[in-house]
Amino acid sequence: MDAYHALAVSYDRLTNDVDYKATVEFYMQILEKEGLKPRTAVDLACGTGSVALLLAQMGMQVTGVDLSEEMLAVAFQKSLEQENRPLFVCQPLQNLHLPVAVDLAVCALDSLDYITDPEDCAQAIKRIYKALNPGGCFIFDVNTPEKLKAMDGQVFVDEDEDVFCLWRGEFDPQTNICSYGMDLFQRQGKLWERSFEEHREYAYSQAQLLGYLKDAGFTHIAVYADRRFEAPAEGEQRIYFKARKGKIK
After folding, report:
1. Which domains are delineated in the chain?
2. Could you report the per-residue pLDDT of 148-169, keeping only the tens digit for each?
3. What's the predicted TM-score (pTM) here?
C-alpha cells in the first residue's frame, strides 16, 4: 500500500512529539530576518494540516497541498474548529498549480525527500518558484543523507492504546533511497486491523538541492542547521533551506 493511506487516521497520534510550533516559529524568525510579512502562503505536502493551521492562525490566507486524499480529509476535519480555515488541494508537487501566487511557500518534515525521482524534485522546485509572488520566500527542510543512511537496519516502534506501528528502515546505496516498511495495527472495536505501508525517501545532497534552487531561478539562498541560524555541522540530521524569488532590493 502507498504511504499515508491507512496511516492517515492515526498519524497525529503517532507523531504527537513533533513540535510544529517550533518549526513555524523558525519560519517566522527567517521571515523577520528577510524583512517579510507574508499575507498568503502555501503549505506543501501539508499532511494533516498542522503547519497550515498554525500559519492560518497568524492571519495568513493559506493553501495546503498534499498527494494523499486521506491525509487531506483529516486536515479538513481539523480545520473546521478554526475561523480562518486553509483551503486544501490534492496535487503532486511536480504538477503544482495554484489559482493565485503566494508570498510564502513552506515544506516541512523532510516532505521533499518523498519525491524519489530527482528530475521530479527539480520540476517541483520550478513549480514552487512559479507559484510565488516576486520576492516571495521558500523555506523547507530535508533529512540529510547521513541520517537516511544510518536508518539502514533500524527498527522503531510507536504505539498507544489504539494503534501499534512497527517501522523497519533499509537504505539502498544504488538507488540512494531509504525505505521504511511499516506494519500498522489499528483497533477497530474489539478487533485489530493490520495494514502495511512503504515510505521511501531520497537522500538529496545539499549540493543537489542548491543546484535545483538556482536552476529554478531562486536567489538569496541560505542553508541552516536544524532550526538554528548556523551552518550545518558535520553529521547534521536535518537541514533547512531558505530561498527568494527574483531580485531582492
Report:
1. 6-143+204-245 (3.40.50.150), 147-201 (2.20.25.110)
2. 999 999 999 998 889 999 999 9
3. 0.96
